[in-house]
Amino acid sequence: MRKPLVVGNWKMYKTITEAVNYVDQIKGALPTPEKVEVEIAVPTLFLQSLVERTATSPLKIAAENCFYHDEGAFTGETSPVALRQLGVKHVILGHSERRRLFYETDEVVNQKVHAALNAGICPILCVDETMKRGQSHGQVAWMVSQVIAGLKGVNEDEMARVTIAYEPSWAIGSGKVAATPSEANEGCYLIRQTIAALYNDQIANRIRVLYGGSVNETNLVDLMARSDIDGVLIGRASLDPTNFLKLVSIVSASE
Ligand code: PEP
Fold this sequence. Notes:
Elements: E1 5-9, H1 16-26, E2 37-42, H2 47-53, E3 59-63, H3 80-86, E4 90-93, H4 96-101, H5 106-119, E5 122-127, H6 139-150, E6 163-166, H7 181-198, H8 201-206, E7 208-212, H9 220-224, E8 231-234, H10 241-253
Parallel strand pairs: 1-2, 1-8, 2-3, 4-5, 5-6, 6-7, 7-8
Bound molecules: phosphoenolpyruvate.
């Protein structure tokens, strides 16, 4: 049985005051972590103070990115070792915005996955589809190739700490055009099949695969009812604390 994981992705939104108020508002109102794990990925600048504020809460704070070296002359980058020292457990890697706007290749994403694992951080590896499957040839192969390339050299033991997020960029950010639950489930299923082929059935059955892309109150019940969706990555709809709590409670109530 895979425990659901909900990850809010704030991107580059909020001031530090808004961030602190948000976390203070929700940190005591979450379901127990036995039912659902809840994290918010926040801008690097907010990590330290939010990790401190949530030390005794089920709410965990994740990073939105890290670099692939532990230290060195890399102006502006964030060390995975420093994240670990802060108490950060998860880092989002390979988000479609990083791939598209910051030209992160599969090789770079793979280096980051290794650096995170070596530092003791759990990567959430995002893989993209830019168009609906069936509307354009090659989308499945491209999505699968991001899974294969992102996990290159990751061993079976390390796979226990990896989460994958199926995040079709055609569904991200609109708040309206989400994948249908069956499209989302099929994407997550294809990822699980790829893991089975790369590793084995046991690892494929154990790994959590999340869906991300315009998740909201209306589509979440149906998404969580699907067999291969183990949780969600939520951008826009995670920005309002009341709304985020509502989404967490929907996941918590799902079987
Ligand atoms: C995201 O950017 O990871 C995301 C899922 O965004 P949204 O929920 O806004 O589509």
